[in-house]
Each structure stands twice: as structure tokens, then as C-alpha cells.
Amino acid sequence: MPSADHPDLPGAPHFHYRDGELWVEDLPVAELARRYGTPLFVYSLAALRAAAAQWQQALAGREALVCYALKANSTLAIVQALAQAGCGADIVSGGELARALRSGVPPQRIVFSGVGKTRAEMRAALQAGIACFNVESMAELDVLDAVARELGVKAAVSLRVNPDVDARTHPYISTGLRDNKFGIPHDEAQAAYRYAASRPGLRVVGIDCHIGSQITSVEPYLDALDRVLDLVEALQRDGIALHHLDLGGGLGIEYHGETPPSPAALVQALLQRLDARGHGHRRLLFEPGRSLVGNAGICVTEVLYTKPGTSKHFLIVDAAMNDLPRPAMYEAYHAIVPVRPRQDVAAHAWDVVGPVCESGDWLGRNRRLAAEAGDLLAIGSAGAYCMSMASHYNTRGKAAEVLVSGAREQLIRARETVADLWRLEHALALT
Ligand SMILES: *Cc1c(COP(=O)(O)O)cnc(C)c1O
What we know:
Elements: E1 15-18, E2 21-24, E3 27-28, H1 29-36, E4 40-44, H2 45-58, E5 64-69, H3 76-84, E6 88-91, H4 94-102, E7 110-112, H5 119-128, E8 132-135, H6 138-151, E9 155-162, E10 184-185, H7 186-198, E11 202-208, H8 219-237, E12 244-246, H9 263-276, E13 283-286, H10 290-293, E14 297-307, E15 314-317, H11 326-330, E16 336-338, E17 348-353, E18 362-369, E19 376-379, E20 400-405, E21 408-413, H12 418-421
Parallel strand pairs: 4-20, 5-6, 5-13, 6-7, 7-8, 8-9, 9-10, 9-11, 11-12, 12-13, 15-17
Antiparallel strand pairs: 1-2, 2-3, 4-14, 14-15, 14-19, 16-19, 17-18, 20-21
Helix pairs in contact: 2-9, 5-6, 7-8, 8-9
The structure holds pyridoxal-5'-phosphate.
């Protein structure tokens, strides 16, 4: 039985049991579910602020910028909260550029990553005056150069180098190996920088690397940093001075027993290495996504049916893979706990599954829970890569989102209706 001293949601101290039920800050989760329905994403503003503060404090006294990677959760109020906490933005599309600007992120705190930027997206970002493009290929350098010259400006660029280090994470979220589609290979980077420096529409300002996601140790970061610094030194000998180092995002969180370094421990190890190699004066950028928002949110779902079987027993809930795609996509683990733990029902090992017509639609397997139809469950670590990856599959509207601060809550995204879903469709007119 979970208790107040042992929160059962890993890494999420702002969600805790009090008086036999789960609370978020100073509000009972069940009360929010009653008011807004399920499935419901519930975020803690204090948790968002605490996560931002951890990064900021670790970098205090340095010239540094923490650019929140919007793709982890791009809901406007979430981005606004992090912008107010002093974060910039790491964006990967024109849509995310618009969201960052709309959320009050100053353009000079925005960096633009991604392998497939379109000309229109480049134009919009140049017109907004963003800080830097993280360029991922030679072909992109040429297009960006041309677009910038058409506008009569110079685009600030970093090259995203692929350091060929193994982040030891899931293959779908590892990005720093030679065979990934990301970045410019380490041994081609020097030539690429020389080329970039020669283009009239480009201004070389930094270097960037991002080696993967859900990384749970410091070593891959130190390996990547060493490789990046080797390049910085070689470029310096070539007369190409880099103003900033962008070390990407990727820091993992606790979903289920992982013990990732804290942002403070990671930053400290990196600063030590930078200082030891004589690069401590350089401006530093980071692009954390998951570590800022992942454990600041849960998804609340209602048990619709219990379906005992011969070998497997299913708890069918009203949240599904369209709300929480990570288990189906990466076989990811999310903690699942009761909102009101029950003593009067026997616990069984259940597979927790959604209503979507796919066998891949599961949220947790073999979870020991005491629950009946009508009970509420909380799915942990749902702040990152859940709502932002949600889809309308099976014509299911996206869930509502609520942000809590103390004993107050605000609906930050209303539940989608069927009318929202077919708003852009046209009835058949051809005969
Ligand atoms: C996804 C991504 C991030 C954020 O990764 P997290 O694991 O969420 O911290 C940062 N930078 C780039 C280029 C990314 O693609």
C-alpha cells in the first residue's frame, strides 16, 4: 500500500498519497477527474519550476542557456511556464517556432534543430530573428545560405556533429551513432565548417551535438564532449572561432528504477571536463526536453472493464495508445498506480490496455493492481512525449490537460470533441 513517505510514482514528489488517495500538490487527483473527465493529463507547475531550477542552478555563474526542447510537450501553457522560468526553446518545425514565440520565448533564445527544415520554415525563423540554426547536412547549408541571402540577412549556424558515440539507450532514441540520420559525421565536420564559413549568407557561431534520449549515465556525454572539443580545437587552428557549444538534450528520468544523474551532476561533470581542457569560458547551450517535463505530469484514466482470461487478465481503461504512444512505440514502461488504493478488492496481475483496435495498444503489462470498473488509475511520467505524440487514431479526441499550482488548477487544453476532429474535412461532393 503506497504511503505518504513512499510516493509510488517514481521521480515525481509533487504527486503523493495523502489520506488514502493520490494528490497533485494540494489537490486530490480524483477531484480533477470528476471535474474534467478522463483520460486527463494533470501537470504540476511546481514540478516544472523545480526541474527548470535544477538546470538553471547547475549553470549559475556561467554564460549559459537552457533551451527547452518543445517536442517533449508543446502545449502553450507548459512552454509559457518554462519560458517564465528563464528557458529558451529548441524547436524542430515551423509549428514549434510559432508555439515558442506565442509562449513568450524571446527569439534570441530559440535554436532550430532537425534534419528536414523547409525553405518556408527557414524564412520564418530568419524573419523572427532566432539565435541559431543547428544544421544537419551540407545540402541544408546551401539552402539556408540561399534563403538568408534572399532575405538580405546572415543566418547564424552551428553544425550538428555526429560524434559516433553510443548513448546506450533504445535504438529508436539513439541519435549519435554513425548510421543514424542525424548530424554531420565527425570526420566530415571540419570541411563542412570551412565551407559554411565561406558562404556569404551564413555566420558560423557554434557547434552542436545531441546523442540520444533517456540517457542514464554521464559517460556518453563526456565521450561526446571530448569529440566535440577535439573539433573545436582543430577548427580554431583553421581560423574558425566558435562562440558557443550546444551539448543537446537527452538526460533521462526515472520511469521505473532508472538512476539517471541529476542535471546538477551531469552539468558539473561536463563543466569539470570543459575547464580541464581550457574551454570553460565558452557559452553553453543545453536542449533538455524529457528531464524538464517528464515527471511533472500524469495521465488519469478510468477502468472501463475487467476481463479475466485463462493466462492473461486485462484491465481495459479509457486511455489508449493514441494518448500514450510510448509503450506501443518503444515498449516503454510507465508506472501505473491507483488513485484511491483499495483494501476491499483482491490484487491481481493485470495487463492494462486501451480500447484501440490494435494488440499494440497496451499501457502496462503484468501489473499488480487491486481495481474494479469505475476505479481511477494514474499513469506516471506522462509529462513528456505523451500529449505531444498523441493522435486521433480510432477517431478518439485528444485528452484534456490541467495544470495545478498549490490548491488551484487551470484547464490548459480542453478535451477535443468529434466536431473538432472533422473540422477540416469535406463531405463527398463528387458524383
Ligand atoms: C528530442 C531532442 C532533444 C530533447 O531530447 P530529450 O531526450 O527530451 O531531452 C534535444 N535536442 C534535439 C536535437 C532533439 O531532437
